[in-house]
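Holo prediction — MGD.
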Amino acid sequence: MFKTTCPLDCFDGCSIEVDENLKLKGEKSHPITQGYLCHHLTNYHKFPRVQKASYNAKQISKEEAFEILKEKLKSSNPQKTLYFKGSGNLGSMQSITRKFFALYGSDVAKGSLCEDAGAAGIEEGRGANLALSPLHVKDAEVVILWGRNPSVTNSHMLPVLKGKKIIVIDPVKIDFAHKADIFIQIRPRGDIYLAMLLARIAYMEEMEDKEFIEQRCENFDYFCDFINAIPIQKLVEKSGVDLVKAGEILSLIRGKKVSFLVGLGVQKYAHGHSVLRAIDSLAAMLGLFGKEGCGVGYIADSGFGFSSPFKAKVKSVLLPTVDFGKYDVVFIQGGNPANQMPCTPKVKEGLKKAGFVVYFGLHENETSKLADLIIPAKSFLEKEDLKLSYGHEYIGYMPKIVENSEAFSEYELTQKLLDAFSFETLKEEKEYIQEIVNSNSTQRDGRLISKTFMQLPYEKEFYTSSGKFEFFDDFYDDFESEKAFFLLSTKWNKSLNSQFITDEFLHVPLSLGLEDGSLVTLDNGEYSCKFVVKNDERLRDDCLLLHSGHKDANVLTPHLVSQEGDCAIFQEIKVDLKVCDG
Ligand SMILES: Nc1nc2c(c(=O)[nH]1)N[C@H]1C(S)=C(S)[C@@H](COP(=O)(O)OP(=O)(O)OC[C@H]3O[C@@H](n4cnc5c(=O)[nH]c(N)nc54)[C@H](O)[C@@H]3O)O[C@H]1N2
Ligand SMILES: Nc1nc2c(c(=O)[nH]1)N[C@H]1C(S)=C(S)[C@@H](COP(=O)(O)OP(=O)(O)OC[C@H]3O[C@@H](n4cnc5c(=O)[nH]c(N)nc54)[C@H](O)[C@@H]3O)O[C@H]1N2
Ligand code: SF4
Ligand SMILES: [Mo]
């Protein structure tokens, strides 16, 4: 029996027991995993892998693939090459490839398709983005699921939510909406106005925690001036939430231990950083940081406090809008930009125009189909790695359990490239791993955790330069569109973004009166695309929904970057719908 950790991009960072037949089981005694793995890992071996390297669709050996990559890089101008890494595997060793491309002189795609808009807002207010672990949330009395859907994306949070008062704020009637004490089926992008409306009423009702604000916060007066200057009616209109509902929320949380679990949904917009900053400001005003069961949890900075041995000075370009077509060589690792990046018509056009595209991954996907050279990657069972989690404090080793002679690990490929260019010799894998672990870990009940969590998050300090929480007092949101529908993007239980089984349908509200299976065209003014319809009673009348990983999920999403955080903003768009004839 071996022990390892799930490599996938997920809050839960499950601890796994592996038997001789490589059957994967959740570790029973792990405080978070509690013996349960989700669909992705229980079916892990069923999904076809890239078995062999290939060049122009012809199978070759991995050594031949390496020679082709080496020759390509030797004969190219480094400034005309691009390194692009996705989040197919979140192990710490995955970034080692960056070390080579930094020394070689490639452009590095920097920024995020994920959480960095919201994270930027959190960092402005708190200085660091720390997780609210299930072990922390278990002490809350009220939990607010604000644009986060734990039954799909964070299933190991579910046990601690039992028996608590639940508030759900989501445009979709997610599972928890049925069990919630209050469900606000909010208009998409209404969240910043709702947070300010709640803060405004809380202030009128003198609910603020004066002692906390006095001792631990900065800028509260500016915040008050700012929110008090916005007419209540405007906040009601823009959020779509009336005063009665807002009052109900405040009554339910008054004097209680409250955990806000915030997800991606609220920040897929240009002003995403301000949305998180507004929610944080509401929580700080109520004194809900640094105390048992309280806080705002988001997709946290898993590496906070740890050393990052592969950090290097690089010439970076913005990842969400990078133009692949400009490059002679594009190296893509652990990602599927032809499906997951916004505005995939532009992405695909760029990949076709690029001189030479290398895909280094585990599965065939839309991106590998456009690649000249495919290099098979070793899976998490076949290499040494380490997992720091963005949803809790536990650190998980990922030892090599089985051999695979047809694929490269990121470490092996990097060492071979460094050798080929006579750059430098790497340390042993285990040395890097131990260096990261040693930089910020401690033991609790016989398990390794991040040292940062020896105290409650923000119990002693915020990580801003003042050491205090900094309220916000400004934001900018000028989005307007004449089009009829918001186009939501959410996660699905059977897929992990584009990995595993993906959804085939466009979900539509019942009010459209369409038949399941009928065809519609969506149009954003620049691109249009046909979809097969599925009725979904969970949707508002003004919302359509595609799950992340749908083959055309990003045909209509915008080629834009957030105001802060260099992040994709998948929902900064509205679309029109036309029923196809016949
Ligand atoms: N099964 C599964 N699990 C996953 C993933 C997966 O693909 N599949 N992906 C992983 C990754 S990469 C991430 S980053 C996390 C993300 O985890 P979550 O943040 O939970 O994921 P999302 O589904 O993107 O968004 C959550 C909710 O936001 C809502 N939402 C959309 N727009 C708005 C809005 O304007 N306001 C509000 N209040 N809500 C809105 C959606 O309806 C959805 O219910 O999940 C991880 N876990
Ligand atoms: N429309 C829409 N688009 C989205 C989202 C959305 O909600 N809606 N979500 C966004 C979010 S939150 C995220 S995080 C991104 C994710 O976008 P990507 O990072 O592109 O994620 P995946 O689609 O999971 O593709 C990961 C790839 O990594 C490969 N892989 C897995 N393990 C390994 C490994 O160990 N080594 C190597 N070399 N490769 C490996 C797999 O074969 C897989 O093809 O997508 C974003 N795109
Ligand atoms: S719940 Fe998340 S961490 Fe656990 S097995 Fe599934 S994908 Fe991996
Ligand atoms: Mo993500």
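READOUT: The chain has three domains: 50-112+305-447, 116-298, 485-579.
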